[in-house]
Amino acid sequence: MKKIIKTIIANVLIFACLITIIEVSIWGIENEILRRQKDSFRAKGLLKFHSGIKHFKFDPKYFPSPETGWGRAPEGLEFKSKPIVLFGCSYAYGYNLEKEQTLSYKLAYLTKRPIYNRAFSAWGIQHMLLQAENPDTYKLLPEPEYVIFTFINDHFRRLYVLTFMRGHMLNEDFNLRYKEKDEKLIQIKNQNHFFNFIKRLYLTNIIYNNLYIEKIKLKYPNYKEYHNFALKHFIQSKKEMEKYWDNTKYVVYFYDSFYKDDELKEKLEKENFTVITNKELTSEDITNSKYMTADYHPTEDAWNLLVPKLAERLNLK
Asked: Which ranges of the chain have pLDDT less than 70?
């Protein structure tokens, strides 16, 4: 019996040492990649080794806070027309753009409407749903004429991954995620300490995010599954907003193309979403360097081209 116990203990120690070696190796490699990329996560030096889990927290009363770089201030509040609310990620937020260069600013002053920008970098459809579920959101936003979600292909991946990118992985920033239960999406709270320990491992993130999600879950044969999961986020968000807003119209703006996008477009339209694609707005190649930065975000020229066409498509002029 003692021999069995000693064997078990020895194996556990060997396994723990092996995991530690792997974790330290991944930590060093990923830090070096971030350094070479001059990533903002490395701006203050080496990221700490397992510095502690950071759960996603959001209080609509404190968003946006432009003075701290947390979101964009509303634009066009001097106008008296019904407003527009924007949701999405860094595209809608205006990553690396001055406020005058962004979608929200240009849309506000072209259409003479107040624009409330509820988007931020690294976010996805689930961040719209989180805001839609919170009653405080509606204390801050007047009923809009339109809700517009700017959608990109990567939003499928963001619904599933444990952490958004390598910087978030090293910083242990847990991604906001939902799961289906009783035909409803509910937020994953990450309250189990044992599972949190597993999820925080760099090795777990690489296997789950990079191998399982990107290489298996999001492969083309599975497109109906991940399309439908995204669709449920849109539908539930809309239903939540309709509890407070009676006359709002809902738009999903496909900024880029993705596999079988026409099928998702059709499903959204059946749920009374208006779907607009850039293919409908322009024949220009918006992936070239004039319209997209080296880190794959729209430039001011992109919004100069697209905003008037988007406004015309929605009869906002």
From this structure: none
